[in-house]
Design brief:
Radius of gyration of chain A: 27 Å
Strand content of chain B: under 5%
Strand order of the largest sheet of chain A: 1-2
CATH topology of one domain in chain A: Four Helix Bundle (Hemerythrin (Met), subunit A)
Oligomer: heterodimer
CATH superfamily of one domain in chain A: Cytochrome c oxidase, subunit III, four-helix bundle
CATH class of one domain in chain A: Mainly Alpha
CATH architecture of one domain in chain A: Up-down Bundle
Number of helices of chain B: 3
Number of strands of chain B: 0
Distance between the termini of chain A: 65 Å
Radius of gyration of chain B: 18 Å
Helix content of chain A: 55-70%
Number of helices of chain A: 25
Strand content of chain A: under 5%
Helix content of chain B: 55-70%
Shape of chain A: globular
Order of helices and strands of chain A: HHHHHHHHHHHHHHHHHHEEHHEEHHHHH
């Protein structure tokens, strides 16, 4: 089955290629921007993120220029605050995380031997959301309206409307919008890596990049939702004066710190692991041998992924938490050094075992790792609470975090650009310019950031706008400023190298570095990813499988044709990569960009409290998404199965856990549940900090929450029963039960609302009613979505798009309802029973 | 043999994460337990010694669970039969890879659980 098929005559091959080319072609003219192809989306995504990085870099230069000499007045204090806040925010949210979503969207399909990721339109939606949200956040500084409270937005400064202005709202809403895009990317990547690998690519043969990205996407799922929950609480306080972080009314600013850093620390590893993943692809190529210790890398990726969630309080060592708490986090912060070091030793071992070619990518990679190790060592220092108390909020921490992030992320990214550039247009970047850029950046970086350790130890606090001349910080700051400009000059050389015209350069070889992994098969001129989907038998197929590239390009493997004019890829099993299904993915469409623009409009209008515009945009977005689902998902194929080549026939439709849609729902709901868990955490957090957390205020009582919970569970049972009835062919019964479920959902929601409403709970009076209301609203919002889903399935059934055989829709909404039932049960048990129990 | 009493082998990607999940649960129990005790010392009418004993107990449980996960992983690795790199395109090698990687993760989690528990050995009160 795995041997290539016989080669077809030339005319047939050309006809096949022509059909494939037509199916995967980008639209022309201005419609080009509606494409959803992973290559274009990945490139746009990466270019946008890179442009945001340059913008934030310029902000950093302004910051450095201001600090170059004591008592400087180059910029005003307020502008300085905006500049450093936006610098941190943009680097973390608009560059470091998105660039890897971008690289993954661009690289993963060819690397896995797939044609596309499973949800290309979702990828396009994510990109446009990111583009709009990012432009909105960045643009604010030109209107003197940028956030100015530091990139982690601590209350009470950032909740004070006088002191923080509209910038804080722009931060909260702009970034929430982008977080949605990140979670969309995580869903896309997890399902893509688990289900869309080429046949034969078992998990022990998967490229390490994919292993890393799988772990990182999983981390996004658990790290971003707590921040979304925090953003909700924060914005409720700013917009409607609900006192979540106001101690005078029972709130606590520390809750924000917890929620922010539960996100913020894993984020550091969300940034770092994909960079190391690039190194795991580059190092074997330039050592010309397989990686030493493949399993150890998997250990490191998974281990770091988990341990990174046990570190968040080390950002809060100076907040007065019990010492035993600090010690747990200190211990975990030390433990994470183990898996981190394992990866670096694996790279060193691979280089020792092979014959290293010191190319430009290797230069950036190894230089970056050297810098990262220094940052890691200062990390071990600040992980110790007593040392941290001395270094906290000083330039020592600024030095530490830049060593870690620039060494662990920026340098590997540039290594990746030099390494993968030939995949974009089959041309090379200049080796000479690359090497000059490296040395400028390497030297500039160390000159800029090493003195900051010393300035910090001499007591220079971070974020000061200027400093007096006689405290002994002046020469260090001048040196840092000089170094920063040298570093920036190095980056400029890279930018020039990327942008300079290369049309006089000849087309390079397909695989210029003689790499072993599949992405080097894909031809930059073609949009189809791979000409035919190969059968993989090695970790480095291009090294081990003779003539693979030729056979793939001769269309001798799976799906070499597009007879029905559809974009098709293969779904394979998670563990062994056995072919299971032909997946038809969405093609070019306005709907993704339209949904993103309308959602963006809703967020932006909300920032300025333009309520009508917000409502209109939200309704437009809702309709756009419904249209998207109705026309573009769960399509019933014209035939049940098709021949994919090599004597294999696969089904064109799958539902339940065998389908990618079910997994996407499952993954989304795991993230959603994490956000819900964060809100519940908030509820109990308030309980721990007060002797009586209700402050004597009436709660929602027991009867209404319990009634609502029971009704929601009944609605869930009805939805589940509808799914079963449909599967058994009782279509009329399914419709009746589903309608019943829909009505139960509405009644249950009313009962849920009645609890806090009938007891006159005023959310602005105290944090207790506020947190109860937030939990209730969370459930009601989910119930609204659940009701729409029930109605949608009814409509699909009447329209003949949902049948007992083709039942993807109802299986997916039943899955949603499992989560819905758990959410409602927990929320109402907490608000209804807990106050009675204590 | 004692191996007969082990549960049958599961074919799943998720077994890879068993030991780190145990670490995460243990970490949460230690942190939440101590935090709640320190915030509301009167709640259960116990002293800090009880918190430390509880952490010790949770640690023993966690270490046993990780040990079991490690033994199962060792079995999946064929009791150490085939050395890495486990890169043959066969179901057999895929299983060996899973077993070996799971075993490595069990080792890391074992150490990480001990490190998490160490503070309870040295810290004798909420605030000192």
């Amino acid at each position: 089955m795995s041997a290539p098929a016989k080669k077809l005559p030339k005319a047939d091959l050309e006809a096949q290629a022509e059909r494939l080319r037509a199916v995967w072609a980008n639209p022309t003219g201005w419609r080009y921007w509606t494409t959803v192809n992973n290559t274009q989306i990945g490139l746009w995504y990466a270019s946008t993120a890179f442009a945001f990085m340059l913008f934030a870099g310029v902000l950093a230069l302004i910051v450095r220029a201001q600090l170059a000499v004591p008592d400087n007045d180059l910029v005003s204090a307020d502008f300085y605050n905006q500049a450093f806040t936006l610098h941190g925010t943009v680097m973390m949210f608009l560059f470091a995380v998105p660039i890897f979503e971008a690289v993954a969207i661009f690289l993963l399909p060819p690397m896995l031997g797939a044609r596309e990721l499973p949800f290309p339109r979702l990828g396009a939606f994510g990109f446009w959301s990111f583009f709009l949200g990012g432009t909105f956040v960045c643009g604010s500084i030109f209107f003197n309206a940028a956030p100015s409270s530091g990139w982690f937005m601590y209350p009470p400064l950032a909740t004070d409307k006088e002191l923080s202005g509209i910038g804080a709202d722009i931060w909260l809403l702009g970034l929430s919008f982008i977080e949605v895009a990140s979670i969309a990317a995580a869903v896309e990547l997890i399902v893509g890596i688990m289900k869309c690998r080429a046949p034969g690519m078992r998990i022990n043969l998967m490229p390490l990049f994919a292993w890393y990205l799988l772990i990182v996407a999983g981390m996004i799922l658990f790290a971003f939702p707590p921040l979304i929950a925090g953003d909700i609480l924060f914005e409720m306080q700013r917009m409607f004066d609900w006192p979540f972080f106001d101690p005078a009314r029972g709130g606590d600013p520390l809750l924000w710190q917890h929620l922010f850093w539960i996100f913020g620390h894993p984020e550091v590893y969300i940034i770092f692991l994909p960079a190391i993943a690039l190194m795991a692809m580059i190092v074997p190529t330039f050592s010309q041998r397989p990686i030493v210790g493949y399993s150890w890398i998997v250990l490191a990726a998974v281990g770091t992924g988990f341990l990174s969630f046990g570190l968040w309080v080390h950002h809060m060592f100076a907040t007065g938490l019990p010492q035993i708490s600090l010690a747990f986090f200190s211990a975990a912060s030390e433990a994470v050094a183990i898996p981190t070091a394992v990866q670096i030793f694996v790279f060193i071992a691979t280089m020792l075992a092979g014959r290293v070619i010191f190319s430009t990518p290797m230069l950036f990679g190894t230089g970056g790792i050297a810098i990262f190790i220094l940052g890691g060592l200062t990390g071990v220092m600040v992980a110790l609470a007593p040392f941290d108390w001395q270094a906290h909020d000083t330039y020592f921490v600024v030095a530490h975090l830049h060593y870690v992030l620039i060494g662990g992320m920026l340098f590997p990214v540039i290594a990746g650009i030099y390494y993968y550039y030939p995949l974009i247009d089959a041309k090379h970047l200049s080796d000479r310019m690359g090497r000059s850029a490296f040395w400028l950046m390497f030297v500039g970086f160390n000159v800029a950031f090493f003195p900051m350790h010393l300035a910090g130890l001499r007591g220079m606090p971070r974020r000061v706008f200027t400093y007096p001349a006689d405290v002994g910080w002046d020469w260090m700051n001048l040196l840092s400023t000089v170094g920063a400009f040298v570093l920036a000059f190095g980056v400029l050389v890279v930018v020039v190298d990327i942008l300079r015209p290369k049309h006089r350069q000849n087309r390079g070889e397909q695989n210029p570095w003689n790499a072993g992994t599949l992405e080097w098969i894909s031809e930059p001129e073609e949009n189809w990813g791979v000409r035919s989907i190969p059968h993989v038998e090695s970790r480095y197929p291009l090294w081990d499988q003779k003539n693979l590239a030729r056979d793939v390009n001769d269309g001798r493997f799976y799906l070499p044709d597009a007879e029905e004019g559809r974009r098709e890829g293969l779904i394979t099993s998670v563990l062994d990569g056995d072919p299971m299904q032909v997946l038809r993915v969405g093609g070019t469409s306005y709907v993704a960009i339209f949904s993103a623009v309308s959602l963006g409009a809703a967020f932006i209008a909300l920032t300025f409290h333009w309520w009508i515009a917000t409502a209109v945009s939200a309704i437009v977005c809702f309709c756009a998404i419904l249209y998207w689902l109705w026309t573009g998902t769960a399509e019933i194929p014209e035939k049940p199965a098709k021949d994919v080549g090599l004597g294999l026939t696969l089904p064109l439709y799958a539902s339940g856990p065998a389908s990618v849609g079910w997994w996407a729902m499952f993954i989304t709901m795991v993230g959603d549940s994490t956000a819900f868990a964060s809100l519940v955490f908030g509820y109990f957090f308030y309980w721990t900090i007060h002797p009586d957390f209700t402050a004597g205020i009436a709660g929602p009582g027991m009867p209404w929450p319990m009634t609502s919970a029971v009704l929601f569970l009944t609605a869930w049972a009805a939805t589940f029963a509808a799914r079963q009835l449909n599967a058994r062919g009782f279509v009329a019964g399914m419709r009746i039960v589903l309608l019943l479920g829909l009505m139960l959902t509405l009644v249950a929601s009313a009962a849920g609302f009645a609890g806090p409403w009938s007891h006159g709970m005023d959310p602005t009076a105290h944090v207790y009613p506020a947190i109860v209301w937030v939990l209730v609203i969370w459930v009601l919002a989910h119930a609204a979505v659940g009701a729409v889903m029930q109605a949608y399935c009814l409509a699909r059934s009447f329209a003949g798009r949902l049948t007992p055989v083709y039942d993807m829709d109802i299986r997916n909404i039943a899955l949603y309802w499992h989560f819905m039932a758990i959410t409602a049960a927990i929320a109402f048990a907490v608000i209804g029973l807990f106050p009675e129990a204590v | 043999m004692v191996w007969r009493f082990l549960p049958p082998q599961v074919e799943s990607l998720w077994t890879l994460f068993t030991a780190p999940v145990v670490w995460a649960i243990h970490f949460l129990i230690c942190y939440v337990g101590a935090a709640v005790f320190c915030a509301k010392p009167g709640l259960f009418d116990v002293d800090f010694g009880a918190v430390r004993a509880g952490i010790a107990f949770a640690t023993l449980l966690a270490l046993s669970a990780i040990l079991l996960a490690g033994i199962l992983a060792w079995r999946q690795w064929g009791f150490g039969a085939g050395d890495p790199p486990h890169d043959d395109p066969t179901r057999h090698d895929r299983g060996l890879f899973q077993g070996f990687a799971t075993l490595l993760l069990a080792g890391l989690s074992f150490i990480a659980v001990i490190m998490t528990a160490l503070p309870a050995l040295f810290v004798t009160g909420c605030l000192r």
